[in-house]
Design brief:
This is Gamma-glutamylcyclotransferase family protein. Pfam families: GGACT. This protein is an alpha+beta fold. The protein has one domain: Gamma-glutamyl cyclotransferase-like (Hypothetical upf0131 protein ytfp, Roll), CATH 3.10.490.10. It is 19% helix and 41% strand. It has 3 helices and 6 strands, in the order βαββαββαβ. Strands 1-3-2-4-5 form a 5-stranded mixed barrel. Strand 2 and strand 3 form a beta hairpin. The chain is globular and about 40 Å long.
Length: 140
């Protein structure tokens, strides 16, 4: 089954100025704009963050709309980056469709978001380092 062609919500190393932004997004996107994901908390992982679904939290990031001609290639590349394979219990992340709010005008958009897989979520809730601002860029 082919996944829906949704934009992506990125909140960590794929954000502008971060290590993976140009490597994966340059030349493949039509637009990117600030957004926020409600119902999630942000945890600092080993070199990258994890969004953990949790009522009352908010994660800040960018809503990225790929170019139509680069969509399939980008989806594969991001799944590989996040080490996500549909249905694999060893996944660190799960790719899920969630409502993301555009910061500029407050409109809601359905987007792909890579959230922590259940086993990672349990570990982070038990002993993870919460990024209280919900903004990966503020950790510095």
């Amino acid at each position: 089954m082919t996944p829906a062609r949704l934009p992506f919500f990125v909140y960590g190393t794929l954000r502008p100025g971060e290590a993976n932004h140009d490597l994966f997004l340059r030349g493949r996107i039509r637009s990117e704009e600030p957004g926020r994901l409600t119902g999630a908390l942000l945890y600092d992982g080993p070199g990258y963050p994890y969004a953990v679904e949790e009522t009352g939290g908010e994660v800040k990031g960018e809503l990225v709309t790929p170019r139509a001609d680069a969509y399939a290639e980008l989806l594969v590349a991001l799944d590989e980056l996040e080490e996500y394979t549909p249905g694999d219990p060893r996944n660190l992340y799960e790719r899920v469709a969630r409502e993301v709010t555009r910061t500029a005008d407050g409109t809601a958009v359905h987007a792909w978001v890579y959230v922590a897989a259940p086993s990672v979520t349990a570990r982070l809730r038990a002993r993870g380092k919460l990024i209280e601002s919900g903004d990966w860029l503020s950790r510095r």
